[in-house]
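Kindly draft a polypeptide, keeping tokens residue-aligned:

***
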Amino acid sequence: MSAHPATQTVSACAKAILLGEHAVVYGEPALAVPFPQLRTRVQITPQPGSKALVVESRELGRRFVFGDLASVPADLTARAIRTALEQTMLVLRRPLPEAEFLITSDIPLASGLGSGAATAVALVRAMAAWYDTELPPEAVSQAAYAAEVVHHGTPSGIDNTVIAYERAIYYERGQPIKLLDGLPAPCMIIASSGIASQTHTAVAAVRECLASQPQEIGRTLNAIGRVASSGLAAWHKGDWHTLASAMVTNQLLLQELGVSHPRLEALIKAAIGAGAWGAKLSGGGMGGCIIALAPPEAIIDIERALLKASATAVWHSGVPA
């Protein structure tokens, strides 16, 4: 097996959680979907004789040079990249390529859309592509999860899973993944609040609340799990109104956990007021994005309402051609 001689590009999609964030960390189920309209790409360019792999991120404005992986960098981002590369090398049983990996992305940082996991998945795919190998989604997900651990400490695993499989999933830690592809997808709208969402901060805040109020917070987390279960049944039936109603309930429970934000709630109100069936925050919260389900004919009105309500960006998917 020889290294690929030509420049090539691989990519990984964004993700959005429809139901179950935060509770999924504690063993409750979650329903998540890929959002292929936003992607992270890695352009692979051979650098023969360089004796190093260079990883450059345009969005971060940073450049990392890996001559080998013997040392562990102190920098968190460099360490996460190193981990993704190392885990892939262990699977491939191949050395670091002499190449440049240029990372570019449509996925906004700190938005709850899985930008970190998408970068890790794209890097794993780039390593495999260099050696003309296509790793199975499970192997890609595991390697990316190791990088997510570096960034988030105790991630749920949902980001790397849905992005690596690039399919809608019903996820429950320790249980077989339920792939939900082959079903009609609802129209989804994602809007950014423009406020950074730091997943690790939100996860830590919920953990502290659970430690200080175990019964109350535990009940809220269990309730989120039940809502996610009801959402799965609605998904299988193609009952988007019921799924959207579950999202509204989920949002109220997330507000009880203290991970919402007034800007997010204003966007949710604007989306529903303009015709969305339901909406909620998506991801860690405390900023980031909202996601809404809506009929195709309402998409334009909802986008206008969200921008009027100070959304910094709006994207949609699932609209029939």
Observations:
- The chain has two domains: 8-179, 187-317.
- The domain at 8-179 is CATH 3.30.230.10 (Ribosomal Protein S5; domain 2).
- Residues 214-237 form the longest helix (24 residues).
